[in-house]
Amino acid sequence: MIDDGTGLFTIGELARATGLTVRTIRYWSDEGVLTPVTRSAGGYRLYDAECAARLELIRTLRELGLGLDDVRKVLAGETTVAEVAAAHVVALDAQISSLRVTRAVLSTVARRGSTAEEMTLMNKLARLSAAERKRIMEEFVDELFHGLDQVDPAIEERMRTIAVDLPDDPTPEQVDAWVELAEMVQDPEFRAQMRKVMEFNAADQDRSAAPGRAMWFPMRLVKLGAEARERGIAPESPEAEAIVRGVLGEGGDPAVVLERMVSASNDRLARYRELLSTLKGGTAAGAHRPEFAWVVAALRARVAG
Known about the structure:
Layout: E1 9-10, H1 11-18, H2 22-30, E2 38-39, E3 45-47, H3 49-63, H4 68-76, H5 81-112, H6 116-126, H7 130-145, H8 153-160, H9 172-185, H10 188-204, H11 213-230, H12 238-248, H13 254-264, H14 267-279, H15 289-304
Antiparallel strand pairs: 1-3, 2-3
Helix pairs in contact: 5-6, 5-9, 6-9, 7-10, 9-14, 11-12, 11-15, 13-15
């Protein structure tokens, strides 16, 4: 406080009292958020105790991330601290989400040893909006079912309701999974593989059959494959033949079922199921890769025999 009985502060004294720099106080004054009450005979800005209190509020608001425009509105009474705080919570949530994605992308790049080009693509795909991710998957599914009226309704409904999105706090594995999935479903060769599976389903579909049978039958085979593996039954053994025959029945053709199972259980489709499982917080085991492999091997043994 200057020693003239006025109770006023120079910028330097105000800086020493608040711990702020002279440069910062001068900048805020120039921006109109801290107005001096008067000037000295030499033209220096002078501030009173109310200015000092106002300065503490400005500092607090700035430390909380508010821009000078918002600070100015609060000080002018055009908005409340609560309203500005609520808006900044929303903005911070978006920023935190973006930072989490950035962290996950960088972790994946470090783990993969990615090139600059791979990192750019990974970052681009990871930052797609939820709407853009949905569009990619919808276009993929639309192509799979285009012109196929006989597909099991339960299969089509399940494919169309797949929700593929990154969690709010994605792990590097989930970012990796989404990037790989986005690349996969836009690959013409993979789309052709999936289309073949849907065409088999449409060709086999009996209009009188209950919806969902097309999902039930492969999963029944997978369940049997899991049980057989647990019991140590070899796919080419007589015991395996009895298991397969029990599912197919006397009239079932192992060659036909084998063709369908091979189309639906190749490595890329298994990887597709693994990626979906990872994005939903599951594990690669959800793809049932070894169970499908046992069933395919057992069917091949029957066809070969």
